[in-house]
Amino acid sequence: MMRYSRQNKILELIANNEIETQDKLAAMLKAEGFEVTQATISRDIKELQLIKVLSSTGKYKYAVSARQDAPISDRFVKIFRETITSFASAQNLIVIKTLSGCGPAAGEAVDCIGLPHVVGSVAGDNTLLLIIDKEEHVEEIMAIFNDMLIMRSKGQ
């Protein structure tokens, strides 16, 4: 699951810094404790579908693609399935437990899947809190999560 932690850190780094090259990204990851090779960085960029965009300083930097096509959805469903360990609800809240370091990745996955009725999410290291618009919609979201786990147990 180190890959999900690393990829989550990449998303965080490109959101908060202007990263123009794979070398700069690799150096920043190493400073954060991730030992990476150029091939790993290249693979992560491809899997995350990062693109280069013109920054406010006139240089090109890495950014998340705005496209929301099926491969992205499938990838986020897979991330969610592989990182969550349990989930439970209380009123209009759903608390999701994840593997250590995977809370933000699971949160990004849930946000990108585009679940109905989710007002927002807050991610910690190994926990994700979802706020649902109305208590009566929680059961629908929990059923979606159960379906994802059933797919995992069948090896899909």
UniProtKB/TrEMBL annotation:
Keywords: Amino-acid biosynthesis, Arginine biosynthesis, Cytoplasm, DNA-binding, Repressor, Transcription, Transcription regulation. One of its GO terms (cellular component) is cytoplasm. Residues 1-68 form the Arginine repressor DNA-binding domain. Pathway: Amino-acid biosynthesis; L-arginine biosynthesis [regulation]. InterPro entries: Arg_repress, Arg_repress_C, Arg_repress_C_sf, Arg_repress_DNA-bd, WH-like_DNA-bd_sf, WH_DNA-bd_sf. It comes from the Bacteria. One of its GO terms (biological process) is L-arginine biosynthetic process. It is found in: Cytoplasm. The keyword Coiled coil does not apply. Regulates arginine biosynthesis genes. This is Arginine repressor. It comes from Emergencia timonensis.
